[in-house]
Amino acid sequence: MKSLDQSPLDPDFVQNPYPFYDIAREQGPLFHWNDYSIPCATGFSSVNDLLRDRRFGREMPADLKAETPEHLASFYALEQHSLLELEPPKHTRIHSLLVRTFTNRRVNDLALEIDQISHLLCDKINDQPFDLIKDFAEHIPVIIICRMLGVPEDMGPQLLRWSHDMVAMYQARRDRDIEDRAVTASLAFSDYIQQLMLERQKNPQNDLISHLIKARNQDEKLSEKELITTCILLLNAGHEATVHSISNAVKVLLETGQPPISFFKDEKSTLRAVDETIRFDPPLHMFTRIAL
User: What is the C-alpha separation between 269 and 77, in angstroms, rounded?
Assistant: First the structure.
């Protein structure tokens, strides 16, 4: 296995990591990334095999877990209930409860809502320069997730601030200031969801929090911490990936030099354009697994 050096903080790498990926793939199915001190799989087949192999997972065995720094205890106490960090049967139980709330009818309703929101946002944009992320991409997922959870939409900006502060923990540039802000955000976000849960227990609505509370009070076992973490995850994971998928896709299409409308002539070409831009420049590049 060859070893390679590439700082993830290098501005040139951040803007265009693909030349390094090309070099890494030339080394074979695996290479050791010295800056992260981990072996990495590079090609489709090897990555696909590893992600499907049940000998690799996300939950660190108890006897190998490093001691959590005291100042991060509350953050990781929340994260330990995240679907992204769990293996079956815990993952299966929480996931099955979520899936039941995403009926075909609800998904179709969401599609119509997304279409309406997109048009409203476009109508606000005139011929003046605008910021694609701040003026368009950030609004769509946070509005939809607020509606799903039953959170007032005017809380959107605050949810975004909490989300940004928490997600920064998974970036290579993480430092003590980022850690402290993530802890503050996770505590505030948890308190807010907990208060919302108390309100929904007294006055259930047709929203995700109410449905999960109902499941928790029946046969399925969903703890309060699991419910809070799941709600936070829906915003953090759903928001971050969606925003950057939109912005990366627009950048890719503009750089082709062709009229953007040419990629959206009909439903088939639209789906193909979306799939291809996500493949070509995805918002997330690295997923870690632990050899169990």
Answer: 45
Q: Which CATH class is domain 64-284?
A: mainly alpha
For residue 69, what is the DSSP state? P
* CATH 1.10.630.10 domain extents, the chain: 64-284
Cβ(97)–Cβ(212) below 8 Å: yes
Question: Which segments of the chain does DSSP mark as H helices, in order?
Answer: 11-15, 18-26, 44-52, 73-79, 90-101, 104-124, 132, 139-149, 156-167, 176-202, 208-217, 224-255, 267-280
**pTM higher than the cut 0.85:** yes
Which tokens sit at 270? 């639209």
Closest by CA to 288, choosing from 49, 85, 65, is 85
pLDDT tens figures, 183-224: 999 999 999 999 999 999 999 998 889 988 887 666 667 788
Q: Which amino acid is at 171?
A: Q
